Amino acid sequence: MSRQQRETLVGIASNEASVKRVVRWIAASGALVAVIIGLRSLLLDHLVHAAVLFGFAASMLANEFILFFSKDDELYKSFFLWSIGLLLLYLAASGGESNTGILWCYVFPPFVFYISGLKTGLSLVTALMLGMLLIFNFENLSFVLATYSPDFQIRFFSTIMFVVVFSYIVDKQRRDAITQLVTIGKLYEYAARTDELTKLPNRRDMRDQLETEFSRYQRNGHHFSVILLDIDHFKQINDNYGHDAGDVVLTKFADALRDICRKMDTAARWGGEEFLILLPDTKLLEALAMAERLRIKISRMEVAYGQQTIRLTTSCGVCSIHSAKDLGALLRQADVSLYQAKLRGRNIVIPQVTRERPATAGLNNSARKGQTMGLELNGFDDPV
Asked: Active-site positions?
């Protein structure tokens, strides 16, 4: 998983946690209000009303236990919203205190859209409105104790629909704004971690990936290697053909890196005409083989610029984490190797495989293949 994907998931998880905190706060507040009003109803001998309110408070407490044992946030929110909806229908049907219970319905649309989203919110609000129509039009039902005049019914539905539409619009704009901010954040993150010209990861992103790979090496012992390379005589290309030609060369060079790298590898622009390739689960000999394939591929490239053809070569410094105590030492050794490649005339990979170790002398061809890991590296004693 990439760093950007991880940060996106963290952002989503943070938003979900915020919504859950709001639900728990409303549930606690609602349960407290229900207990207070229930006690008052109990003192007034409104036993059914008190029992319903106490039952609602108990359901909020039960919902906390459901969340604790199931860890299912969606179940927690659904149970909460349906409990609220059923309580509101009861208050509308019974009238509540002084026939004012129905007024609690106005608080439902804003937080139902906030908690459950637009689509689910519309479904729940629609269910509530259908329940209200049933209560208004069938007053002879046994559970309908309150009566509402036609004028009140018209005004109630007019105002509640205004609240529903307004709440929907506000929450939709809020969600659209969050989506835009997330998109902008991803674009900024991409720009901050991507080289504008080559579209490869930049130095900052590569450093993060190196640290991740080094941590994996420390935990699990998985080797990795790096190839530090640059374009030979790049200054002359800029001087002879112009900086636009230099940009074309850098772009084509980056394309060549993409072509030869494996899916698990990462090629980045390290700075100027220097590039760095991270090779996970790769020991030194394998890294040297890849560097040599890349050097050959680059040496055969012909970059067309206008009516001219530009030939390229590259020098490579290779190092494995096994021969370095930390990332700083790894990068310094790769830089030293690249510098040695320049001193030796460029278009070369350092360290070089120079000869077979004496351990393979006198062995037949089959035995020599079994001793491939005994190749000696010029100037290095790094396991391959």
From this structure: 273
